[in-house]
Design goal:
By secondary structure, the chain is an alpha/beta fold. It folds into 2 domains: 66 residues, no CATH class; 194 residues, Rossmann fold. Helices cover 46% and strands 15% of the residues. The protein contains 12 helices and 7 strands. Helix 3 runs antiparallel to helix 4 and helix 10 packs parallel to helix 12. The chain is globular.
Length: 282
């Protein structure tokens, strides 16, 4: 599928007409995924928690096929081998490398990191395992259940004294004002793809700089995905609605960040050309 043939975000929000043969293809694909597909633990996790949830992200990161019988495991292996899943894992590695490089740049100085929509934040723990006590993190997420699960991970790794947890909405200005310290690095991984309102993202970047004032900002942008229509027509999000992700040109989002006052973008694409990971300075 060429980039030009991918439906726009607005088109993906609209149901296909009954005269469109693609409608029947996606109806059949969706039925298969919701029934036999759920023999795969990964697909089942996606339908239970949403394919945009932290739960499915962590499952994809683990990349160990599980399922009901050998059929379920085979389906799970196929699911985890999809290009979108491979891109998720590649982006995780890029983000770990970017965070680690930023910490190393600070040459041992105390570093405070806040992840504003963290999910379980497995990649943060991968970083913390290789840093000293001078690096501390505040994980914020709208889901208290996800934060509780992340707290268990911190305890199991012996990192509880270096990680704080706080329920909060990254897009709410009052919630941002409750962050107790100015962070050296703010992270927003995966947030923009599930926020459909351009002006909301644009305003948020301005609020982030004015209210939180991080020295640096790390975010990612889903720029292209040949599976975007399959995902939108057959899978569900955390609210049980069609999982419509918003593709955006990386330069558009970087431009909004520059309008807000961030500068010097450093961009790294995943090997599949789906995600751009961007680090900017304040």
């Amino acid at each position: 599928m060429s980039r030009k043939s991918i439906p726009s975000f607005e088109e993906l929000k609209e149901p296909l007409g009954w005269s469109d043969p693609k409608k029947y293809y996606y109806l059949l694909a969706g039925f298969s995924l919701r029934t036999a597909g759920r023999l795969s633990d990964g697909i089942d996790t996606g339908f239970r928690y949403g394919f945009d949830s932290g739960m499915i992200m962590n499952y994809i990161y683990e990349n160990v096929p599980h399922g009901k019988s050998f059929v379920g495991r085979a389906l799970d292996e196929a699911f985890l081998g999809q290009t979108t899943c491979k891109a998720f894992r590649a982006v995780k590695r890029i983000q770990i490398d970017a965070i680690s490089a930023y910490i190393n740049e600070r040459e041992g100085r105390e570093t405070f990191i806040v992840d504003l929509a963290s999910g379980k934040a497995d990649y943060i723990y991968d970083v913390l395992r290789h840093t000293g006590p001078n690096v501390k993190v505040l994980l914020r997420d709208i889901s208290e259940k996800t934060l509780a699960e992340s707290k268990e991970t911190a305890l199991g790794l012996g990192l509880r004294d270096r990680v704080g947890f706080e329920a909060g909405n990254a897009l709410d200005a009052d919630s941002l004002r409750s962050i107790p310290y100015r962070p050296n690095l703010a992270i927003e991984a995966g947030l923009y793809g599930i926020v459909h309102d351009d002006e909301l993202v644009r305003k948020h970047l301005s609020d982030l700089r004015e209210i939180v004032g991080p020295e640096a900002l790390l975010f990612n942008v889903q720029t292209y995905n040949e599976q975007i229509e399959l995902i939108a027509r057959t899978l569900v999000n955390q609210d049980g609605e069609p999982c419509v992700w918003h593709l955006r040109d990386k330069d558009l989002v970087i431009g909004w960040a520059e309008e807000a006052g961030f500068r010097d973008p450093v961009v790294k694409m995943d090997p599949y050309g789906i995600y751009a990971v961007v680090l900017m300075r304040n």
